[in-house]
Amino acid sequence: MSIRKRLYYLLALIFVVIMAGSTGYYIIFDGEPRFLDCVYMTVVSLTTVGYGEVIAVTGNDTAQIFTMVLITFGMGVILYGISSLTALFLEGELSGFLRKKRMAKQIDKLDDHYIVCGGGETGSGVISELCKNNETTVLIETDAERIERCKAICDLLFIHADATEDEKLIEAGIQRAAGIVISLSSDKDNLYVTMTARMLNPGLRIISRMSNPQLQPKLIKAGADAVVCPNAIGALRMASEMIRPTAVDFLDHMLRSGKGNLRIHELRVSQNSKFNQKEIRECGLKERYDLLVLGAKDNDNDIVFNPSPTRLLATGTTLIVMGAVEEIARAKDAF
Questions:
Q1: What pTM, to 2 d.p., does this model score?
Q2: In the CATH hierarchy, which top-level class contains the domain 3-91?
Q3: Domain 261-334 homologous superfamily, CATH
Q4: Which of 102-116, 179-193, 200-214, 294-308 has the lowest mean pLDDT?
Q5: Which CATH number fits domain 97-228: 3.40.50.2020, 3.40.50.720, 3.20.20.370, 3.30.2350.10?
Q6: Which of 110, 155, 302, 321 is the most core-located residue (most Cβ within 10 A)?
Q7: Which of 30-34, 84-88, 100-104, 156-160 has the highest mean predicted lDDT (pLDDT)?
């Protein structure tokens, strides 16, 4: 039974017993006492407080017998209800339920956030990088220990549930999200969640994990914008360590150093951007934000490395830049 159902059940049980006792007294005395006095008499009797008889029970055989039956059976119900409610508080179940409700309200307010399905080795790494880039992230994970490990990375919103359930994706705000990373252990689950996510939000950016490279065409067809195979990435990393160790060391230092927050990111020119129809040098990326422009990509998908400062920016142009996370965030707002 869920926490909410248990709480409602216990409160209803206590209410029914008190109302039954109060109604009994009211009927026995033909409605002469106030109903509030009947309620008071019932509560005093069941809690064995013993403040005295508000209603003249002594001398009325029917009332005395009813009171004895009420105390004998009703007290057990009241004690059970109160002890169970106390246990909910002491064991933290109720507070956990309330925290879950508050978190659900926070998630309902999110917009353009990111969802990560699966908090394993891959998922936790994704969460770490998203947090370092100040991106709002919601984790969906079934394993409580993995959730705790991911929560240790940053102040994380999460849903303790199965990501393959459509309603949990909706709870995570998938219809308002900017993107979703699907890093479940099963390729079949990744394929299913990819297809579901695309159906729920056609404009969503979907990145899916795969173990079997042969599944890449299916994942792309199901709606994934990009597919990542950790084994293939690991192989490329090992080869890079062999032939370009200094370059790899630079990238590692940039991405993993605890002292700095240097990142390679992208800035997309929107239609209403003040930099639309301006040259790169007019944006002042170096002077205002201390950003280094590495490349540019237009709508024709051709990437130009080290673009000319006189290159004209247009709607949809994406600049690839390197710099501090905070400065990149400022530049993104401007673009």
A1: 0.63
A2: mainly alpha
A3: Regulator of K+ conductance, C-terminal domain (3.30.70.1450)
A4: 294-308
A5: 3.40.50.720
A6: 321
A7: 156-160
